[in-house]
Protein: Transport permease protein
Amino acid sequence: MTLRVTFAVAARVVAQLRRDHRTVAMLIVLPALLVSLMWWMFTDSPATFDRIGGPLLAVFPAIIMFIVTSVATLRERSSGTLSRLFTLPMAKLDFLLGYALAFAVIAVVQAAVVVSISLYALDLDIRGPAWQLGVVAVLDGVLGTALGLFASAFAATEFQAVQLMPAVMIPQLLLCGLFLPRDQLPGVLHAISDVLPLSYAVDAVVGVAAGNGFGQGAGVDALVVVAFVVAALALGAATLRRRTA
Structure:
């Protein structure tokens, strides 16, 4: 791994994204629109929105980042771009970290937009510092990116990459505590939720929203999310294929 190569890959991906206005708009605007839609749905029940609004700040960015990065990585491989890149002195981890850094930049903007709209336009009630909520939202976007990069290794076409989203993300969505607190799940499902990264992403957001900031529990959940990101990138580097068979 070489930092110069990693940053070069990141700069290349950012340059590509700057030319793809639709993708950038989806990454930055769509999470805020979805949260706003949920606020509208529960406009007569603000307490319900306050309960689920925080977890949505973890769920929506992670899912959207997963879809975009898994498809984008597969497109690089199926078009032959990845094979050409690997003729250069570049390791697989350079490629994945470069992608992760590029989408982390998008995740920062994404988090700033969705958190600002949620707090100041939709009046989402949180007791913790807004900046900590923003940090967790960024981590959740990066988590979706890392999972997307890892999952793309198991798809042969872009259609298959999209199909991976239900298989990878929907079980996490159901068990992460969004619909039912995890401690109220049946024993087996609770045990499964304990090994799913989105569970800790939601726990971190809920912790900050409840006033339990990074020094009071949410920080541990955030560190677990970071560990999942690192693990996903490492596994992605180990399983990444240079071309689609």
About this structure: The two ends are 26 Å apart (CA to CA). The chain has ten helices and no strands. The mean pLDDT is 86.
